[in-house]
Amino acid sequence: MNSVTTQYLPSYSYGTDAYAAVSQVVAPANQAGNASTVSAVVIGGKRAMAAGLGRLKAACADSCVQIIDAFWYGGEASYENVECLLRNPTVQNADVIFAMGGGKAIDACKVVAHHLNKQVYTFPTIASNCSPVSRISIMYHEDGSFKDIFQLRTVPVHCFVDTQIIAEAPEAYLWAGIGDTIAKFPEVAFSMRGEQLAYAPELGLAIARMCDEPFVKQAEAAYKASKQNLVTDALEQAALNIVVSTGLVSGLVGVNYNCALAHALFYGLTTVPEVEKNHLHGEVVSYGLLVQLTMDNQEEKLQRLLPLYRTLGLPTCLADLDLSADGDFESILEATEANQELRHVPYSVTKELILGAIMKLEELSAECKVPAAQPPRIPES
Fold first, then answer.
1. Neighbours of 139 (CB within 10 A)
2. How many CB atoms lie within 10 A of CB 367?
3. Contact 154/110 with Cβ under 8 angstroms?
4. Which of 22, 205, 243, 363 has the largest CB neighbor count within 10 A?
5. b/e per residue, 78-110, with b = 16+ CB within 10 A?
6. Cβ(23)–Cβ(64) below 8 Å
7. How far apart are CA 185 and CA 190, in angstroms?
8. Of 335, 133, 340, nearest in space to 247 by CA
9. Residue 175 backbone zone (phi > 0: left; psi -120 to 50: alpha; other: beta)
């Protein structure tokens, strides 16, 4: 059999001085000990660059990496903003792209780099998702509604996780990242059920276990450290699981196994403008996981997670997402049922099954005796 499978895995640096590795990673010396100058343009979010650009410039000073300019990505991971950046002469002329910020900023930059055939290096300033190391970009319409998932040729060349910046970011982002990451193993395992797996998906499933019990045990301590702006072992482990482990899983398992109902319901729920505007991605995904576990009759796991959710202030019922059980769910359910994340699941996930699980979860949430903590305040855009 003549066939070739190529797997692209991310590389990364982390720590309170992670940017110190930029010059050796981006412009490594050759055998003669010399390195060519590399011009880089930074593209990112406004708050992100306020937090990280100064540290990055200081790390690149007196090195062979020359930062020639920095630009705001536009505020939305939209193709319109991508086109605007593609027309920018400085972006066109830079040797490499440095993507700095959260998921949307980095996803937009990855598409820009893809079209310009340039290398992209990522600098996450929050730990909320795996965009900094993943091979996909989640793209949105200008109004913030979901558009599609853009498949990239390869993963970013390298990711630099400055844990000091992560610790000093608003705790809402790590909180949402915790919610998103808790969903990784159950979604992957659900979508793989009954499958004969090849090597890469099997490896992805093994890595996904890092996002299960080991991660859950440290989640509360990591969130507490984030609220205190402290770099601790728990925060570091949480940040790496949120950013790196989930990204490794995404690249290894492929589109068929990466997500399931938790993410499909996220896309359905965020068709409601209030949910899309007032709640973070990982927050909504975390609720979707509880619905998935309820639908799949995984009550033991559900009952283990409910107290943690309450302690962290993650949503366990519709009211936590500013919705009511008496509301009209038809459009939400239609969008969820049609979402691509439900194309490869072990049984047919219908609107009726989803609605039944939502309503049953309302009852189970009401029975939970652990008091619900207040969720963190989400910074204004």
1. 20
2. 9
3. no
4. 243
5. bbebbebbeeeeebeebbbbbbbbbbbbbbbbb
6. yes
7. 8
8. 133
9. alpha
In 3D space, the residue among 100, 124, 99 whose CA is nearest the CA of residue 114 turns out to be 99
What's the residue count for the chain?
381
Q: Which amino acid is located at 267 in the chain? A: Y
Q: Which amino acid is at 248?
A: L
Residue-wise pLDDT for 147-183, tens only, equals 888 999 999 999 999 999 999 999 999 999 999 999 9
Count the alpha carbons within 13 Å of 113 in the hemisphere toward its beta carbon. Answer: 30
* Sequence-ordered list of residues with C-beta below 8 angstroms from that of 162, at least 6 positions apart, any chain: 14, 15, 16, 17, 18, 19, 52, 55, 123, 125
Q: How many CB atoms lie within 10 A of CB 3?
A: 4
Q: What number is the average pLDDT over the span 65-94?
A: 97
Find the helix or strand (DSSP H, E) in which 162 lies.
Answer: strand 158-162
Distance (Å, whole) CA 214 – CA 233 = 13
Q: How far, in Å, are 16, 29, 64, 240, 283 from residue 162 at the CA level? A: 5, 23, 21, 11, 23
- 361 CB-near residues (< 8 Å, 6+ apart): 290, 291, 294, 316, 317
Does the pLDDT value for residue 381 go beyond 70?
A: no
Strand partners, 221: none
User: Any residues with CB less than 8 A from the CB of 193 and at least 6 apart, and which?
Assistant: 346
Q: What percent of the chain has pLDDT over 90?
A: 90
